[in-house]
Design a protein that fits this description.
Layout: H1 16-41, H2 49-52, E1 54-60, H3 65-75, E2 82-86, E3 91-97, H4 105-114, E4 118-125, H5 127-156, H6 159-183, H7 189-215, H8 220-251, H9 255-288
Antiparallel strand pairs: 1-3, 1-4, 2-3
Helix pairs in contact: 1-6, 1-9, 5-6, 5-7, 6-7, 6-9, 7-8, 7-9, 8-9
Length: 293
């Protein structure tokens, strides 16, 4: 049986500024990526057809991928937004955004059949329905984050420990969003669900750390290590599970699960950094230099 031991970090070697510098720098870079993406595309992150509206066509084609993609492009009068392959089934998933509007789902299906493609399924989402779905999904994400913030402040009733949890949770969401742009992962109902899960993961690890340091007996660094033994083990176990899910989903061409797993892996890795560098530095400042001297 494999046993994992969390190493005890000598935090006394580092100042609060040194601990906070890396997570804050990563957060700034992530915000710059999102801002730049918004300037270039009009949206902070690429959105899937569930939010923008559009049509998805699945076709089965044998042969090399490059030849299959060229055959797909020639089959349709509208330019596909994305073409994804499902290697295990020789299936290609083709999406068309609503801007291709004049070409409806029925027409796209007819064009595919005329080109000799084996159409497996066709699904369509109207632009208005996609817009409503986007408002509901992002509104739910915002309400969840706001509710989490209120709950944290109600639990600790002190500004610095509470804002440390909120900032860490915010960074845990922003960093995966920026990486979604870099990796070409679209915002969908599945990835929104992953972001909601990250709020829960982040609050769990941050509150664990805050409780050990602020509400339990023992030296600051002793309390920190006790929290790390539980928190780091829990987070690394989740990361391992998500990596396995992502690899398996990628091999079997399940793009939604692969996207969810990727977002969670990067989000959980960011959570480790933010909890035990950024949050910890704020708590140490609060305990030794801030209000509680």
């Amino acid at each position: 049986m494999v046993e994992f031991t969390v190493p005890e970090v000598d935090y006394t070697r580092y100042t609060n500024r040194q601990l906070a510098a890396i997570p804050l720098a990563v957060l700034v870079v992530a915000l710059l990526i999102i801002a730049g993406w918004y300037v270039m595309t009009g949206s902070p992150v690429n959105q899937g057809i569930a939010f923008t509206g559009g049509t998805e066509v699945q076709v089965a084609i044998d042969g090399p991928q490059s030849a299959a993609e060229e055959q797909i492009r020639q089959a349709f009068s509208a330019e596909p937004e994305t073409i994804r392959s499902v290697p295990a089934q020789n299936v290609y998933v083709i999406t068309f955004q609503s801007e291709a509007g004049s070409v409806g789902a029925a027409e796209l299906e007819r064009q595919a059949q005329d080109a000799g493609l084996d159409v497996r399924s066709v699904s369509s989402v109207s632009a208005s329905f996609g817009s409503n779905t986007q408002v509901l999904a992002l509104g739910g994400l915002g309400v969840a984050f706001l509710g989490m913030s209120v709950l944290v402040f109600a639990m600790f009733r002190v500004f610095v420990p509470s804002i440390a949890v909120v900032i860490s949770a915010f960074s845990d969401i922003v960093i995966p969003l920026a990486l979604m742009n870099v990796l070409g992962i679209e915002l969908s109902l599945g990835t929104v669900a992953a972001l909601l899960m990250l709020i829960g993961y982040s609050v769990d690890s941050d509150i664990l750390l805050n409780n050990h340091i602020l509400r339990r007996s023992g030296d600051f660094y002793e309390s920190t290590y006790r929290a790390m033994r539980t928190g780091v083990t829990m987070t690394l176990t989740s990361i391992t599970a998500m990596i396995v899910m992502t690899i398996t989903a990628t091999l079997f061409g399940i793009q939604l699960l692969a996207a969810i797993g990727t977002v969670l892996v990067f989000g959980l890795a960011a959570d480790l950094m933010n909890t035990y560098l950024l949050n910890l530095s704020l708590l140490r400042w609060y305990k030794f230099r801030g209000v509680a001297r």
